[in-house]
């Protein structure tokens, strides 16, 4: 395993992290014993970053992860998130910060988390209030570091004015390269740790889907995928994406790699990335992911991959920041901020 400095924290984070969204039960079916074995195999192989959230299965993912870890909690960097999925919607208020951390600590069976993130911005609450509350839980020893997930560049700057942001978390993969343009330059300038979710495009780059794949009722991808993930699984779009994936898979095979290894290697090659999160349902998937390291994609292969996206007219970096009914023109916002 390779380790990278996690921004300005004192943490050395594994290049490959373990994403725990699937443990919440809304990402298709999983076999509990297989996932628990995968967690332990991951730790044995050097994975030390495990990312979950209060909203994954309404606490189910946190409880599952605690059970899977057993007595190995202190061997890992534990990350969780709060701020969405409440009856009132998003909530980043002081009271919720303190209530949420207590709930997460209980479900995770620990007295602290290494990194505590705001899952999505609550724009009805002052960011000054949210950041002050996060600093309070750091001072109380309930979180070592704090950060943001899915905030716009302008919002990150406003939070930074109130309290340093230690870690950022965003989606980034071959199909979605927006953050390399919007977020990564700021993160590098301010030495902020960056966690990546959706590294395999939410399973699209795992290489196991066909044009006829049907997702179960308990799978969020059944409805096309969320707007923020560019709806990669929407009717029509999904078929086109699978055709592109099949061509990328051929490239991976030609260079002696599995498709997920190529996709992960591409994500990890960006110098802004601290750790790339990948979910795993069994030991075999964990072990296969290890093959993403210790080699480099050459420029010719990168160009060949980009030509595939051009061939299928896939826009990998649209000026599109969509959350539900909210559509933000990020390029305009960034111009105004500068």
Describe the structure.
- The protein is α/β, with parallel strands linked by helices and 338 residues long.
- The chain has one domain: NADP-dependent oxidoreductase domain (TIM Barrel).
- 38% of the residues lie in helices and 15% in strands.
- The protein has twelve helices and twelve strands.
- The chain has helices at 32-44, 60-69, 94-108, 127-139, 153-162, 178-182, 184-189, 237-254, 259-268, 283-289, 299-311, 330-337, and strands spanning 3-5, 12-14, 16-19, 49-51, 77-82, 113-118, 143-149, 167-171, 193-197, 275-278, 321-323, 326-328.
- The strands form three sheets. Strands 3-4-5-6-7-8-9-10 form an eight-stranded parallel barrel.
- Helix 1 (32-44) crosses helix 2 and helix 4 (127-139) crosses helix 5.
What is the radius of gyration? 19 Å
Strand order of the largest sheet: 3-4-5-6-7-8-9-10
Mean pLDDT equals 95
- The tally of strands reads 12
CATH topology descriptor: TIM Barrel
Tally of domains: 1
Helix vs. strand class:
alpha/beta
Q: Concise description?
A:
The chain has helices at 32-44, 60-69, 94-108, 127-139, 153-162, 178-182, 184-189, 237-254, 259-268, 283-289, 299-311, 330-337; strands spanning 3-5, 12-14, 16-19, 49-51, 77-82, 113-118, 143-149, 167-171, 193-197, 275-278, 321-323, 326-328.
């Amino acid at each position: 395993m390779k380790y990278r400095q996690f921004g300005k924290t004192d943490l050395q984070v594994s290049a490959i992290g373990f994403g725990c969204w699937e443990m919440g039960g809304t990402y298709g079916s999983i076999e509990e014993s297989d996932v628990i074995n995968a967690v332990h195999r991951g730790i044995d192989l050097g994975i030390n970053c495990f990312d979950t959230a209060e909203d994954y299965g309404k606490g189910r993912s946190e409880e599952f992860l605690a059970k899977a870890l057993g007595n190995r909690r202190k061997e890992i960097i534990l990350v969780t998130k709060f701020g969405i999925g409440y009856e009132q919607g998003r909530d980043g208020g002081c009271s919720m910060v303190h209530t949420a951390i207590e709930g997460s600590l209980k479900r995770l069976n620990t007295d602290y988390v290494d990194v505590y993130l705001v899952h999505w911005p609550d724009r009805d609450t002052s960011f000054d209030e949210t950041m002050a509350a996060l600093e309070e839980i750091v001072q109380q020893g309930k979180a070592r570091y704090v950060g943001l997930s899915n905030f716009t560049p302008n919002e990150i700057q406003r939070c930074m004015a109130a309290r340093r942001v230690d870690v950022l978390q965003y989606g980034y993969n071959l199909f979605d390269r927006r953050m390399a343009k919007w977020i990564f330059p700021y993160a590098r300038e301010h030495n902020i740790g960056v966690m990546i979710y959706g590294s395999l495009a939410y399973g699209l780059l795992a290489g196991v889907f066909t044009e006829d794949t049907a997702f179960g009722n308990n799978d969020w991808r059944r409805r096309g995928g969320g707007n923020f993930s560019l709806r990669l699984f929407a009717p029509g779009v999904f078929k086109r994406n699978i055709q592109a994936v099949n061509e990328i898979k051929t490239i991976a095979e030609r260079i002696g790699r599995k498709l997920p290894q190529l996709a992960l290697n591409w994500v990890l090659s960006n110098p802004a990335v601290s750790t790339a999160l990948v979910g795993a349902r069994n030991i075999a998937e964990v072990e296969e992911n290890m093959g993403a390291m210790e080699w480099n994609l050459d420029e010719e292969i990168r160009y060949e991959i980009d030509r595939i996206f051009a061939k299928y007219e896939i826009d990998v970096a649209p000026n599109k920041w969509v959350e539900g009914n909210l559509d933000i023109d990020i390029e305009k916002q960034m111009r105004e901020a500068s």
